[in-house]
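User: I'm writing a tutorial on reading structure tokens. Could you give me a worked example: one chain, its sequence, then its tokens, then a sentence or two explaining what the tokens reveal?
Assistant: Sure. Here is the example chain.
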Amino acid sequence: MNLTRLMVLGTLSRYGAQHGHQIRRIAEVTNVGEWGGVSVGALYRELRGMEREGLVEAVRTEKVGNRPARTVYEITAEGRLELITLREQAIRQLTFGPDPLGVAVHFATHDMDRTELRQMLRARRERLAITGAEVAADMERLIAKGVHNALTGATMRRAVLAIEAEVRWHDELDAVLAREACEDAGPAPPPLGRAAMVRAASEHPDGQAEGQAEGQADAAADGQARGR
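And here are its predicted structure tokens:
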């Protein structure tokens, strides 16, 4: 699925003839490279490739001041057919892309220090939370400026929800790792009885007397009773 091609053809169909800089500007304003997987840096190359294929055609050049001349493109009839095909593929597609984190967690963390793993995952979670907040702020800003309508705003909202879901997954996994650490540590030892306390105190390296040991044991037992 060539999402860059889909974005360019859709933009030309919606706004009419545009030059590459205008299309790039739309991509940057909507931040589609961040949430939509569009390669903003490949827009000019994609335009030239589609021109060779007859999907777009150059209709004129524009020159403003001392700036280089810019080629203005419009979508062709063949390009509209390609747009329909790509659009239908994108809407129907249910598969997700590669998941490097999933592969790493599933296959390559069995011998990894759990403290280090939790630290790395927590750092990733924080980066995700920051990205989600930035995308949400961009969405609100663009809606306020009238750049987004109900449909285009909903696409950015979908990206925000996806990031929020990923953040919640990180929180759940961190809780699992925390429980795993507690289980590995084993149960806490039971409190000592009075006889064991007396014996332990009498064996203290300072050589305490038995009466002193019993007194310490009684005090310790009282402390345990108060703590219950």
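What the tokens reveal: The CA atoms of residues 17 and 127 lie 38 Å apart. The beta strands are 18-19, 56-62, 70-75.
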